[in-house]
C-alpha cells in the first residue's frame, strides 16, 4: 500500500530528533576548551564531558527500543523529546562542570529513547518495502549528516556566542517535535502474547544486565586505548561476563529484551556483523584523520571540521542514492560494490598519511563513507523488516547498538595500533624526555625540539597509514564474506517465494 501524504510529513518530523541527536554528539568537542575555562573542568571531568553522552546512549538503546515496543513508540518518542529539550536548556546554563556532566548523562538516556523510536515508527508509516527503503535512506542522511555538521555548526556558534549556545539547539527542535508529532505520527505498540510486546513488562534483570554489559565494556575499551591498566582490563572482563549472563537470560524469556533470533538468520546476522565491523574501521580511521588534520597539518578546529565534514555528507548521499541504485542492481551487488569502493578510499587515506596530503585524506574518507551508504540504508531496512511490526523497536535498537559498539571498538583498537606504530618509529634526540615524547604527538610537540617534532609528525602519519591499510584489507574481506552470505539468502528467498506470498508481508 503506497504511503500517504501524512506518512511523508511524519517522516519529516522524525528527521528532526535524528538530526539533533547526531549533532549533539559532536558539538561538545569544539566547546570543550571554553567549558574548561569557564567552569574550571579538570582533565578527568573533560573526559567525562566528551564520553558520558555516548556511553549512556549505547547503554540504553536496547532497553529503550524494547520499551517503545511495549508502551508505544510515539509515546516514548514524545517523552524523550520533552526530556531532551528541558535538559538542553539545563546544560546550556550549567553553573559547574559536575552539573554539566550529570546533565550530559541524562541527555544520553533521553537520546537513547529517540533513535530506535524514530526508526521503528518509519517501519509503521511505510509498510511498502521500497518506500520504506527511501524513508530509511533519508533518515540515515540526517543521522550521518548531523554527525558531520555538528563540529562545523559548533564552531560557528562558538565564534559568535558563549559555550552554552551549542546545547540550546535542542530546545526549539524538540518543541517542534512535541507540537507536530501528535498530529502526524501514529501510535504503535505490540499486541501481546508470544513474540508480541504489548501488555508485558520490561524484565528488570535484563535491563540491569544489558547496562552492566555495555557500560563497563565501553569504558574499559576506551581506557585501554589510552594506556589504562588493570582496572580497565577488569572492566572489560566484567562486561563480557555480564554479557554471557544477559544472553542466557534472553534465551529463557518468552518476550526477551533482545531478540536473539535475529542473529540466527543468515542475512540479518551477516548484516549486523558487517555494520559493526565497518563502523569499527571507519570510526577508528576517521578519529585518526581528525587528529592528523590538527596536530600534523596544523589546521584550526573549525577548518579541520570543514575538511572532515565530507565524510558524513558522503555517507548521507550514499544512503539517499541507494533506492535509485537498487533499481538497477541487486541489494547484494550494491552493498558489496560499496565495500569494494571503501578499499580504494582507505588506500587514499594511507597515501595521505605518508605524503602529508590534506585533500587525499578528506577525499579518501568521503569515498569510504559513500561506499558505506548502501550497507547502512539497505542493511537497516533488512534488519527492521525482518521482524514483525511489534518488534521493530527492538530490531532498530540492535542495529543502532552495533553501530555504536563498532565505533567505540574502532577508536580504541585502531587508536592503540596507531599509537604502537608511533612509539616504534619515533626517533627521540638525545637529551629529550623520552617518556614525554613517546606518550603522544601532543606531548612530543610540547618539548620544543624541531627534530623531535618532525620525527613525531612522520611517525604519526605512518601510524595513520598503517591503520588505513589494515582497514582496506578488512573491507576487502568483508565484501567477500557479506557478498556470499547475501547470495545464499537470495537463493533461499527464491526457493521460499511461493510460500512467502501467502505469509505476512511484514515478516521476511
Describe the structure.
The protein is mainly α and 508 residues long. It has a domain of 243 residues: Up-down Bundle (Growth Hormone, Chain: A), CATH 1.20.1250. Helix 3 runs antiparallel to helix 7, helix 5 runs antiparallel to helix 11 and helix 8 runs antiparallel to helix 9. The longest helix is centred in the C-terminal third of the chain and has 51 residues. It is globular. The protein starts with a helix and ends in an 8-residue tail after the last helix. The C terminus is likely disordered.
Features of this protein?
508 residues; mainly alpha; Growth Hormone, Chain: A; globular; disordered C terminus
Describe the structure concisely.
With 508 residues, the protein is an all-alpha fold. The protein contains 17 helices and no strands. The relative contact order is 0.12.
What is the count of β-strands? 0
Q: Characterize the biggest β-sheet.
A: none
Structural class: mainly alpha
Distance between the termini: 17 Å
Average of per-residue pLDDT values = 78
Top-tier CATH class of the domain at 266-508 = Mainly Alpha
- How many helical stretches? 17
Tell me the helix content. Answer: over 70%
CATH topology of the domain at 266-508: Growth Hormone, Chain: A
Query: Low-confidence runs (pLDDT<50, min 5 residues)?
Result: 191-199, 495-508
Rounded to an integer, what's the Rg over CA atoms? 23 Å
Q: How would you classify the quaternary structure?
A: single chain
- Overall outline: globular
CATH superfamily descriptor of the domain at 266-508: MFS general substrate transporter like domains
The run of helices and strands is HHHHHHHHHHHHHHHHH
Percentage of residues in strands? under 5%
CATH architecture identity of the domain at 266-508: Up-down Bundle
Amino acid at each position: 500500500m503506497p504511503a500517504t501524504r501524512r506518512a511523508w510529513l511524519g517522516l519529516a518530523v522524525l528527521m528532526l530528533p535524528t538530526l539533533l541527536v547526531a549533532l549533539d554528539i559532536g558539538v561538545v568537542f569544539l566547546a570543550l576548551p571554553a567549558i574548561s575555562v569557564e567552569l574550571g573542568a579538570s582533565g578527568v571531568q573533560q573526559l567525562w564531558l566528551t564520553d558520558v553522552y555516548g556511553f549512556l546512549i549505547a547503554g540504553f538503546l536496547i532497553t529503550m527500543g524494547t520499551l517503545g515496543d511495549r508502551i508505544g513508540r510515539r509515546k516514548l518518542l514524545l517523552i524523550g523529546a520533552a526530556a531532551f529539550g528541558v535538559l538542553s536548556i539545563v546544560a546550556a546554563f550549567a553553573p559547574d562542570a559536575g552539573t554539566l556532566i550529570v546533565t550530559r548523562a541524562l541527555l544520553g538516556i533521553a537520546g537513547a529513547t529517540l533513535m530506535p523510536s524514530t526508526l521503528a515508527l518509519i517501519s509503521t508509516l511505510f509498510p511498502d518495502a521500497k518506500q520504506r527503503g527511501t524513508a530509511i535512506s533519508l533518515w540515515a542522511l540526517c543521522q550521518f549528516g548531523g554527525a558531520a555538521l555538528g563540529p562545523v555548526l559548533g564552531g560557528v556558534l562558538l565564534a559568535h556566542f558563549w559555550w552554552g549556545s551549542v546545547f540550546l539547539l535542542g530546545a526549539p527542535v524538540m518543541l517542534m517535535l512535541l507540537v507536530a508529532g501528535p498530529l502526524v505520527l501514529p501510535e504503535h505498540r505490540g499486541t501481546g502474547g508470544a513474540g508480541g510486546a504489548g501488555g508485558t513488562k520490561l524484565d528488570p534483570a535484563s535491563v540491569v544486565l544489558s547496562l552492566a554489559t555495555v557500560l563497563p565494556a565501553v569504558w574499559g575499551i576506551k581506557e585501554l586505548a589510552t594506556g589504562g591498566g588493570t582496572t580497565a582490563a577488569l572492566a572489560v572482563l566484567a562486561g563480557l561476563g555480564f554479557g554471557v549472563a544477559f544472553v542466557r537470560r534472553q534465551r529463557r524469556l518468552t518476550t526477551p529484551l533482545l531478540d536473539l533470533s535475529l542473529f540466527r538468520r543468515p542475512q540479518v546476522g551477516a548484516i549486523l556483523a558487517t555494520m559493526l565491523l565497518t563502523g569499527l574501521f571507519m570510526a577508528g580511521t576517521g578519529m585518526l584523520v581528525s587528529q592528523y588534520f590538527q596536530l600534523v597539518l596544523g589546521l584550526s578546529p573549525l577548518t579541520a571540521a570543514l575538511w572532515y565534514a565530507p565524510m558524513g555528507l558522503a555517507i548521507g548521499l550514499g544512503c539517499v542514492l541507494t533506492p535509485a541504485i537498487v533499481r538497477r542492481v541487486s541489494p547484494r551487488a550494491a552493498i558489496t560494490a560499496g565495500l569494494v569502493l571503501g578499499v580504494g578510499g582507505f588506500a587514499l587515506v594511507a597515501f595521505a598519511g605518508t605524503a602529508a596530503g590534506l585533500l587525499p585524506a578528506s577525499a579518501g574518507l568521503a569515498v569510504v563513507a559513500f561506499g558505506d551508504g548502501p550497507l547502512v540504508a539497505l542493511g537497516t531496512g533488512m534488519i527492521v523488516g525482518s521482524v514483525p511490526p511489534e518488534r521493530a523497536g527492538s530490531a532498530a535498537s540492535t542495529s543502532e547498538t552495533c553501530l555504536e559498539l563498532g565505533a567505540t571498538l574502532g577508536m580504541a583498537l585502531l587508536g592503540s595500533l596507531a599509537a604502537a606504530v608511533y612509539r616504534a618509529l619515533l626517533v627521540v634526540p638525545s637529551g629529550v624526555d623520552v617518556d614525554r615524547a613517546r606518550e603522544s604527538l601532543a606531548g612530543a610537540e610540547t618539548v620544543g625540539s624541531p627534530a623531535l617534532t618532525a620525527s613525531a609528525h612522520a611517525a604519526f602519519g605512518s601510524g595513520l597509514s598503517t591503520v588505513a591499510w589494515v582497514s582496506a584489507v578488512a573491507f576487502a574481506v568483508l565484501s567477500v564474506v557479506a557478498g556470499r552470505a547475501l547470495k545464499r539468502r537470495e537463493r533461499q528467498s527464491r526457493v521460499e517465494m511461493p510460500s512467502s506470498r501467502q505469509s505476512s508481508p511484514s515478516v521476511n
